[in-house]
Structures are given as C-alpha cells and as structure tokens.
C-alpha cells in the first residue's frame, strides 16, 4: 500500500507540479506589496493541493491493494500505531473517530477550528484519509475502475 501510494505520486507527476508551484510562489515573493498577498494565497492553495494529492495517492494504493482495510491500517500506523501492535489496531474504531471528527466540525465554529488546524498541513489527518478511502471503496467510481481493469486484462 505504501509503495503504491508513492508510485501514485510518480504516475500523477506530482513532483513536476510541485516544482512549478514552488517557482511561482518564490516569484511572487519578489514583488513588494501585492506580491506578498499573492504568495500567501498561492501558499494556501498549494497546501490544499498537497492534501488533495495525498488523497489521490491513497486511492492509487487502494486500486493496487484492493482492500480498504489494508490501506486504512497503514494510515492508522501513520497516526501512531506501531507495527508490534498491528494485531490490536481496530479499523472500525478508527473510522468511528472520523465520524466523530466530522460531527465535531459540522457546526460553524467547528468548521472554523478544523480549517485553522488543517490549513497549513501538507497531509490530511490520517483519520480523515481513512474515512475517504472507506467512502471511495464503496463508490461506483471505484467499482467501475476495477471492472475496467479486469476487462483490460
């Protein structure tokens, strides 16, 4: 799952786009006044793109592994579960944490706090990545991609 995730970055040319975005951002900082505002806006959008790119690569891992529980267990380990405790990790409990997080951030104040906490993160919170994988694994898009791959083989 980890290798498939990283290969997803390569397949999607994330490194190329990241380099281009960084050059744009550095260029914006050279301009005084409005340049700082533009650079800050670019930086905020770049962090958003980072987080979306991670979700894309999590989907790549699921396409390769085809078992959402395996991908989610990797995300759990990233959240702090050590390999020696792998047999004690509970995917369903982890997904319930995501639901609790969603409920807590559904109010306007909760939404604001969530944005303030995650705006400068390059990766989405592991629990939210797990929820996204769980939801996507049940989607028609995922099923269609798997069917298409089977037909190609």
Write the layout of secondary structure elements.
Layout: H1 2-11, H2 14-29, H3 34-65, H4 68-78, H5 91-104, H6 108-118, H7 126-137, H8 140-152
Keywords:
single chain, 153 residues, mainly alpha, 0% strand, Peptidase M48 domain-containing protein
Describe this structure in words.
The protein has eight helices and no strands. The protein has 153 residues and is mostly helical. It has one domain. α2 packs antiparallel against α3, α3 packs across α7 and α5 packs across α7.
Counting helices, strands and paired strands, the structural category is mainly alpha
Number of strands: 0
- Helical content, roughly? over 70%
Mean pLDDT, nearest integer?
Answer: 88
Question: What's the total helix number?
Answer: 8
Low-confidence segments, given as residue ranges, are none
| Sheet with the most strands, sense and barrel status | none
- Rg, nearest Å: 18 Å
**Coarse morphology:** globular
State the domain count.
1
**Proportion in β-strands:** under 5%
Keywords: Hydrolase, Membrane, Metal-binding, Metalloprotease, Protease, Transmembrane, Transmembrane helix, Zinc
GO molecular function, one term: metal ion binding
Protein name: Peptidase M48 domain-containing protein
Family: Belongs to the peptidase M48 family.
């Amino acid at each position: 799952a980890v290798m498939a995730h990283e290969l997803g970055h390569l397949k999607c040319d994330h490194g190329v786009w990241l380099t281009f975005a960084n050059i744009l951002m550095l260029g914006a900082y050279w301009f005084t006044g409005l340049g700082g505002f533009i650079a800050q806006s670019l930086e905020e959008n770049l962090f958003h793109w980072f987080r979306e790119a991670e979700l894309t690569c999590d989907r790549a891992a699921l396409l390769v592994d085809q078992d959402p529980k395996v991908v989610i267990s990797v995300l759990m380990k990233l959240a702090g579960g050590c390999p020696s405790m792998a047999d004690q990790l509970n995917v369903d409990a982890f997904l319930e944490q995501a639901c609790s997080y969603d409920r807590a951030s559904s109010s306007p104040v909760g939404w604001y706090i969530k944005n303030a906490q995650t705006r400068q993160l390059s990766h989405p919170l592991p629990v939210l990545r797990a929820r996204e994988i769980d939801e996507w694994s049940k989607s028609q898009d995922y099923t269609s991609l798997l069917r298409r791959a089977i037909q190609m083989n």
